[in-house]
Write a structure and sequence with these properties.
alpha/beta, six-stranded parallel sheet, five-stranded antiparallel sheet, 25% helix, 18% strand, globular
Length: 456
């Protein structure tokens, strides 16, 4: 199979109408193999011929949309130094825009043998048990799609779950229930309009993992806070297929909601991935460049710093991790036309060394980005680490989930003594948290302009 040098950017698989460019970041890799899979499951392996600034790349003129692929990374196996490279493990592209298939949990997907997790290396091939990344066609007819751009003071957010929203709706066709197409159905749109909401906040739609422990118990991961693909819409929510059809279907959902003047906000989980700690599987980042993608315990790099309660924390101090997050955010805004993001455990994203830093690199990148800085940004302003509760401390560009409001309302309704003053303060905007950081003055000016125009 002929492969040309290609380009180091954009990362991921990029179809240009003729062929596909593949690019993968790994500072630790000694060689990277691109693995292409036919419809019969047959694997064809070709080495990426070039490396530029730690980005391995190659161009294949005959690879078209719908083709499935993965990577095998050759590099050091040194868990005590934080390196888990093993070419026996098929790895998902961190920049994959679609995934086909699910996880068939097997010991081969783990870096060790179950009977010796601390001292063994598992060289069993994981490819038969892994989903595959998919080359997608980026074209889509957006027609006259326009963002509603609803101002904050008029925004009414409806948090919902793609599958749960229409799964049991009797007026949605059965084959569409629980899918992107089910939410885009005219019956669903009419219901949202009748509610009077101006935005839907979708619980995680990034590709996530069905946990092995849940599947063993006959259960499934419903909520989706277990991301593995930050540019890929979750394939199980697609009614049309998983070879890129999920991308087209999600775009159609956004287009339909915009036609109804309803914004789309995504609940995003950039603080951790589904690979867990040192006992977790090798699915993607861990086998590509573990020490770059994750925060490791400095004096024993086999283990992971865990500010999230999930086993690992993404390393927001590394430029390529920051690049992945920013590329993901821009992709969902530019290519998928979403209108904003709610950041799960957002305090984790702001940790530089240990403390949450209001002036962290992540905030700096968001502030200066001409695309991401212009959409709605909502922080869940805490994590589970020390000093992680940061309600009221995010920059003015951000909105927050006001945990103090939540706690006050809960206390009031359950009859806790002496809560009325606190309840009143929270209900009227929590000026103790937000009046001095730029938000209140902006709202006042907007209200004054509205009054001059005769608006309510």
């Amino acid at each position: 199979m002929q492969i040309w040098p290609g380009q180091p950017y954009p990362l991921g698989a990029t179809y240009d109408g003729v062929g596909t460019n593949f690019a993968l970041f790994s500072e630790v890799a000694e060689r990277v193999d691109l693995c292409l899979f036919g419809d019969d499951g047959q694997e064809t392996t070709v080495g990426l011929p070039e490396m530029t600034a730690f980005c391995w790349h190659g161009y294949l003129p005959e690879v078209k949309p719908g083709r499935r692929y993965g990577y095998r990374v050759h590099g050091p196996w040194a868990p005590e130094q934080g390196h888990w490279c093993n070419p026996a493990k098929l790895l998902l592209d961190p920049y994959a825009k679609a995934l086909d298939g699910g996880w068939q949990w097997d010991e081969a997907m783990f870096p060790y043998h179950f009977d010796n997790p601390d001292g063994s290396k598992n060289d069993a091939d994981s490819a038969p048990f892994m989903p595959k990344a998919v080359v997608v066609d980026p074209s889509f007819d957006w027609g006259r799609d326009r963002r509603p751009n609803t101002p904050w003071h008029r925004t009414i957010v409806y948090e919902t779950h793609v599958k749960g929203f229409s799964k049991q709706h009797p007026d949605v066709p059965e084959e569409l229930r629980g899918t992107y197409a089910g939410m885009a159905h005219p019956v669903s749109i009419k219901y949202l309009q009748q509610l009077g909401v101006t935005a839907v906040e979708l619980l995680p739609v990034h590709q996530f993992v069905q946990d092995s422990t849940l599947l063993q118990r006959g259960l499934r991961n419903y909520w989706g806070y277990n991301s593995i693909g930050y540019l890929a819409p979750h394939n199980e929510y697609s009614a049309r297929g998983q070879r890129g059809e999920q991308v087209q279907e999600f775009k159609q959902l956004v287009k339909a909601l915009h036609e109804a003047r309803i914004e789309v906000i995504l609940d995003v989980v950039y603080n951790h991935t589904a690979e867990g700690n040192q006992l977790g599987p090798v699915l993607s980042f861990k086998g590509i460049d573990n020490a770059a993608y994750y925060r490791l315990v400095p004096d024993n790099r086999r283990f992971y710093v865990d500010y999230t309660g999930t086993g690992n924390t993404l390393n927001m101090r590394h430029p390529h991790v920051l690049q992945l997050i920013m590329d993901s955010l821009r992709y969902w805004v530019i290519d998928m036309h979403v209108d904003g993001f709610r950041f799960d455990l957002a305090a984790t994203l702001a940790r530089e060394l240990h403390d949450v830093d209001r002036l962290s690199s992540f905030f700096d990148l968001i502030q200066q980005d001409p695309i991401v800085s212009r959409v709605k940004l909502i922080a869940e302003p805490w994590d589970v680490g020390e000093g992680g509760y940061q309600v009221g401390n995010f920059p003015p560009l951000w909105s927050e989930w006001n945990g103090k409001y939540r706690d006050s309302v809960r206390d009031f309704w359950r009859g806790t003594d002496q809560t009325l003053a606190e309840f009143g303060s929270r209900l009227t905007g929590s000026s103790d948290l937000y009046q001095a950081n730029g938000r209140r003055r902006l709202v006042q000016r907007q209200a004054q302009r509205g009054e001059r125009r005769g608006e309510p």
